[in-house]
Write a sequence for this structure.
């Protein structure tokens, strides 16, 4: 898949318990997230996100950040996770910790295999 080679991916999750490592992620430590609530929270976080509905009924949003582009992928139904993809060519992805703080979520960095818990921790 070309898309996965060209992007740097984050899996976004809402914790129901403290999560500091990927090993602590399970259905018992995560809360289901409502797709419309996620989109609304991201719109409050950054009104510049351009949204469109996907053929499967979910949402796709794009934003040109100061350090890289960000693509948001949110499914149609409540789920434990949603994703953000960024350019693999950048060294910083400054909005990821800010989104974690603003939405009360944690991010799994799929390339580094680590958790991002936001800037306030």
């Amino acid at each position: 898949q070309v898309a996965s080679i060209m992007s740097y991916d984050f899996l976004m999750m809402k914790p129901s318990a403290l999560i500091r490592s990927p090993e602590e992620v399970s259905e018992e430590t995560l809360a289901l997230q409502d797709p419309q609530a996620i989109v609304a929270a991201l719109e409050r976080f950054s009104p510049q996100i351009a949204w469109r509905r996907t053929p499967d009924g979910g949402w796709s949003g794009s934003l040109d950040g100061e350090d890289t582009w960000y693509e948001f992928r949110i499914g149609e139904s409540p789920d434990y996770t949603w994703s953000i993809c960024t350019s693999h060519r950048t060294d910083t992805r400054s909005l990821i910790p800010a989104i974690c703080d603003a939405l009360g979520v944690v991010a799994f960095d799929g390339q580094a295999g680590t958790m991002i818990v936001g800037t306030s921790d």
Observations:
- The mean pLDDT is 89.
- Helices lie at 2-6, 35-45, 95-103.
- The beta strands are 7-15, 30-31, 50-53, 59-64, 69-74, 81-87, 106-109, 114-116.
